[in-house]
Design brief:
The protein is α/β, with parallel strands linked by helices. Helices cover 36% and strands 18% of the residues.
Length: 250
Amino acid sequence: MTEPAPPAPGAKRDDDLEEFALPFFQLLALRLQVVLFAILTRLTDLLLLLWRPRLLVPYLGIWWAEILHTPYRARRTFEVVRALKTTGQRFRELIYGETPLMTALWFFKRAGLGRGSRLVDLGAGRGRVLIAARWLGAEAHGVELIADHVTRVAPRLQAAGITLTVGDMTREELGDATHLFTNWLALTPETKARLIERFRTCRPGTRIITVTRPIEAKGFVPLSKHWMLFTWGIEAVWIHEYRPETPALP
Ligand SMILES: C[S@@+](CC[C@H](N)C(=O)[O-])C[C@H]1O[C@@H](n2cnc3c(N)ncnc32)[C@H](O)[C@@H]1O
């Protein structure tokens, strides 16, 4: 396999993370808000896991992995550049954030996830959402592009019957899923369009949950919209059903 070429001198890097730069006090306020949300959501996660103590060890494994190596600081490592080359994505599409258990449990319940269902998280990060799916008794599988996220937690998640694999979500096999989840906040319109084409390989009736934006394409019927808490703030969550014969909404 060929190695990724270094950027040409003076060339503009494609990450453009400076676009997200904030003035000092705004940044400080945002950081405080994130810390507050982190404390709140971790406490509620722990309380919920008292009902499913078997999931507590895999969940704490995610915390432990985070203490050793934070997923929140994006690094342009060799492996990351290589992964982006294979998918044709931009560095900023890897911006990290997680879905708290309470949030995931709420929208999964609304989407009808439970025993006998199979949830696939597309862009699963370190698998926090998959723990919520197991909490409800569903099968849980995640696919994540960045191998480092996966290798740090996958063996611990496996003990709870969760599979988390390295791969490109736009090529994932979706035929046996009853529910899909994607936190696609950072994806470019091009990547979203490829993912939507992949959604079309699902069985009719599959429920698809997206964060921030709905699926705006023929065959995906929005069922409900909810405002929910994530690790970085409040976002809209959309629940859709795949009905291939339905025209796009105006
Ligand atoms: C915002 S995080 C969401 C993590 C998790 N789903 C949650 O909500 O807790 C989005 C994840 O999608 C991953 N990702 C981006 N492009 C991907 C691709 N083509 N295939 C698989 N994962 C991808 C990123 O690396 C990142 O970990």
